[in-house]
Each structure stands twice: as C-alpha cells, then as structure tokens.
Design brief:
The protein has helices spanning about 20-25, 30-40, 50-55, 70-85, and strands spanning about 10, 65. With about 90 residues, the chain is mainly alpha-helical. It has one domain. Strands 1-2 form a two-stranded antiparallel sheet. Helix 2 runs antiparallel to helix 3. The longest helix is centred in the last third of the chain and has 15 residues, at about 70-85. The protein starts with 7 loop residues before the first strand and ends with a helix.
Length: about 90
C-alpha cells in the first residue's frame, strides 16, 4: 500500500466543503435512472450510465470521477446530485 497524488473530479458540499459519500447520500438506482431519463447524460468514454448508477447508489467513500472525464460530465453529475441529494 502507498499514498499517491492524483487528479480527479471531486464533489463537495458548497457550504461545508465535505465530499459526497454515496453511502450516506441515500440516492437509489431508481431515482438516478429517472433523472437520466429526463436529463440526457453526456456521452463520455470515461463514465457510463451503468457506472454512474452503481457508483452513486451502491458504493461508499469519497465519490470522484477520473480527471479524464469531461467537464460536461462532471457538471451533469453535480446537477444531478443537487437535485437528488438535497
């Protein structure tokens, strides 16, 4: 095991600076699917719909996207979290 630095998209609460942890977000796969149905997800080879659904609805720890993900995708995820998490 080692520590390394890496670039990534991190999703933080604007007022506290605390990162989004899906384990405590309470966002179901069904809610994410409904959001994606209403708001088309941008095409991005780094992030698939299935990955997004799985990562947000069924994982734990600080949620990040690869630095290689498009900014448009990061903005989409932030908008989704703002609508579904709060």
């Amino acid at each position: 095991m080692s520590v390394r630095a890496m670039k990534a998209w991190v999703f933080l609460q604007s007022c506290t600076g605390i990162g989004f942890n899906p384990e405590y977000g309470g966002i179901s796969a069904g809610k994410i699917r409904a959001y994606i149905k209403e708001h088309s997800m941008p095409k991005d080879p780094e992030v698939t719909k299935q990955d997004l659904i799985q990562d947000i609805s069924n994982s734990s720890g600080l949620y990040t996207l690869s630095a290689d993900a498009k900014e448009e995708t990061a903005d989409y995820v932030a908008d989704m979290l703002n609508e579904l998490w709060f």
